[in-house]
Amino acid sequence: MAAGKVHARASLGLALPVGLLAAEVVGNRAGLAAGLGCASGVFLSPDLDLAGRTVSESLLWKLHPLAGFPFQAFWRPYAWIFPHRGVSHTPILGTATRLLYIALFAAIMWFVVGQPDIPPLWEWPETWAWCAGLTISDAAHWLLDR
Fold first, then answer.
1. Under 8 Å CB-to-CB from 130, ≥6 apart: which residues?
2. pLDDT computed for residue 15 by the predictor
3. Other CB atoms within 10 Å distance of the CB of residue 21
4. CA 74 to CA 97: how far, in whole Å?
5. What is the pLDDT of residue 112?
6. Positive or negative CA dihedral for 131, 135, 137, 138?
7. What is the model's pTM?
8. Sign of the CA dihedral with 7 first, then 13, 19, and 21 last
9. 41 contacts: CB under 8 Å, gap ≥ 6
10. How far apart are CA 127 and CA 121, in angstroms?
């Protein structure tokens, strides 16, 4: 079972090769999005299901408490809902749980603030490339835990 810092390094290490491969296959913007999706695995890690502070939360707390506290507070209910190493650590399904958790919050904000005058994110190809990159990062996390 790998430590959080190892998972973070793996996410960052995958960002460039995944981004370059995706850029070659589907275009530069999607490639950038896929690489950023992998890098996002540092902060949107399957370990957000931990009751304690994660590596990403610790990084944000070191940056500034105004970065760490809201992030940790946002993800605390997720940790209460999903036990550590449960469904949240399952490739694809675990990524989906975190994305749906974010989408629920976004939907609430959309309802409260009002609909922005932009196309929904799911209509952007870069969104799907970013999600694919995050899924690859999560798969690496799962493999490192084996």
1. 33, 34, 36, 37, 40
2. 94
3. 14
4. 14
5. 87
6. positive
7. 0.88
8. negative
9. 7, 8, 10, 11, 14, 133, 134, 137, 138, 140, 141
10. 6
